[in-house]
Write a structure and sequence with these properties.
The protein is mostly helical. It has three helices and no strands.
Length: 79
């Protein structure tokens, strides 16, 4: 593991220390877990995005004409 130095506003640092204490954790561990969670979410998003981009399926008809709008929404009754 590596050590890192960060710059944080005093109020934010005080809040983070209190939050870590509430969770029974150190500030260092809480920040490490937070960054790890961010990485996992970003990786999952990137994977889903790439799967979507590489999806070669095309939604096509089986040859039958598409229904008319009025047929779908039964708008004939509204006229």
């Amino acid at each position: 593991m590596k050590n890192v130095t960060i710059t944080v506003e005093d109020g934010v640092l005080e809040w983070a220390r209190v939050e870590a204490a509430k969770r029974g954790s150190s500030l260092s561990r809480m920040l490490g877990e937070f960054l790890g969670e961010m990485q996992r979410r970003e990786d999952a998003y990137e994977r889903a995005y790439q799967e979507w981009r590489n999806d070669t399926r095309r939604w096509r008809s089986d040859g039958a004409p598409y229904p008319k709008r009025e047929e779908i929404y039964d708008r004939g009754r509204l006229k």
